Here is the input.
Amino acid sequence: MRSLAAPRRAPLAARLFAIIGLALTVAGSVAAVAWRIVDPAPIVQNTFGFGDVSLVSFGVLGVAFAAVGAILVVRLPSNAVGWVMVVIGVCYALAALTAAITFSAVAAGPSAAGTASVAAWWAVVFSTIGGLVFALGFIFPTGRGQTPAWDRLVRVFAVIVPVFILVGFIIRPGPLQVFPSIDNPFGFGPDLRPLLGPQPSVAMAGSLTWLAPLVAWSIASRYRMSGTVERLQLKWFVASLLVAIAGITFAAIAANFTARPPEAGLAIFGFAGALVPVAIGLAILRHGLYDIDRLISRTLAYLVITGVLVGTYAGIVVLIGGPLARLTGGDTLSIALSTLAIAALFQPVRRRVQTVVDKRFDRARYDGERTVAAFASRLRTDTDLTTISDEITRTADAVMRPTSAVIWLRRG
Here is the structure.
């Protein structure tokens, strides 16, 4: 499919922005990992369970965003998506680096307390700006709102309000958002802890949860107003964004309900979130765009199949495991029967689930298979070459949508 790449050479400012942004991201990510290798200081208590694995994942996430964003800036400089992605990539990488510096400075003791607080402050700044990843839902894939009204809404709610939240994070006195054990070195103004609790940043960050339904509304509105190509682009974006949201949601839930949040949520967000820039690049540059329906269909189908088979296995073990264990003196027989049942059920369940999911999420493949099956059925009774040729042409047109079709018959 033809690419949307701009034929003209990108402006110098765009090329410099892309190169410098990508270089900063790579340097920051490599420096963060190298810093932790050279000085593996203890992890400082933090809000979301940030640690070494998530530090690496944020570096990978930053490089992925900056690399794809730099390509988009150079090839499509008029599209704001690429510019925002480069900023996100730089911030994620520098957030990882400043977090590593914070760990080392805290471990150094009171003599490095000033360095620790300043590094932690910068980590808050960079990680908060990195949250722009969710603002991409308002401007993807065109770089602007789908209507003038949405453009105004994006400027007010998706830019101005988060900026106020960021300013609140970096000037509010008291504990920093990411590192509650470190006080804000640049804080001034009224102390909000009597009003919002011991960690006001958690309440302030929670106030941004209203952005999620607004992003969903924006994507749904654009989807309804879009043509075939833009709908496919949105499918790529939403599929990858849901994976990233799953990781950050796990981290947020753990932060609210556990004293020491596990690192898994942020690590999942970092590594899985790298799928978002890849999906954006595929969608905007149009490479493999039409495979998304098949990917969604297969992913959903195997999730359902896994759930059904795991539930069946657990049910068999629970229902017959106890009686058999009393008869045989062990669980070996029930486990063997459960395994055999799962092996026997796999293919029938897979075919049934795949058919149901394809019918809803991969309709083109489902309709194509039905068309081919109907053609094969008619072909059993047709003997006239002209009729068969017409049938082949109609079937190929329905399934493959070719621009032209020619049937060649060999003589004799």
